[in-house]
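Hi Y.,

Following your request, here is the sequence exactly as I used it, all 259 residues.
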Amino acid sequence: RGFLQSTYAHVRSLSFVSKKMDCVVAIDQGTQSSRVIIYDVSSMKHLASHQLEHSQIRPKPGWAEHDPLEIFEKVNECMEVAYQKACAASERPISVKALGITNQRETTLVWDKDTGKPLHNAIVWLDTRTETICQQLEVEFGGKDCFRAVTGLPISTYFSGVKLRWLLDNVPAVKSAAAAGKAQFGTIDTWLIYMLTGGAQGGECVIDVTNASRTLLMDLETLTWHQPTLERLHIQPSLLPRIVSSAEVYGWVRAGALK
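Below is the corresponding structure, written out as tokens. Let me know if you'd prefer a different format.
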């Protein structure tokens, strides 16, 4: 029913001659909950929405995790319920033309490329378990701002790159999958797009450029992964998704309620 696009930059240029009501769907995947909103393309009028909370996993003080599979299940349920609400509220059949995503930014996860299964819970943006790694990087490379000239960011527990480094160092399943070339890193937008476009059966592995800019790994000048920074953090480029713009077609929905 729709394709994936991260913003609505081109929605108003769409022109359709149809008896159906053309709509766009927004996925708002946040720290506490997921929400799906459906809009009429012609008027941008809100038609329907649905929101569900997901579990907050706190293994230790300062640690925060989410279950990636639960997040996808909640998003899928929200899409289904919102779609049914929109159909009930509309006098015409609904036709979904595009689906966009906004997401919690720095939350980090790794999954198996072959199976599509997460290798650990997602580490949430507010998690502070990487404090020791950050301190070590500051000592080794000359201070908190050693990466700022290229990435625009200070060394901090906030950003995805150090969370990925922690997963590689501390989770045997992630370490072994990375060694075998089977590990895939992503933020929540990467995960949702991957799952919605087919998962292990050909799902797209991409990351929006603005999310990539919050990893501590992207060169702000070239908008590409910065190889010297990857080497300093001992991160293999093969783990990383393809960086894409904020407004383009990423793929066609092949899984979930709107396939």
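The helical segments are 68-89, 131-141, 148-151, 160-170, 172-179, 188-196, 209-212, 227-232.

Thanks again,
Q.
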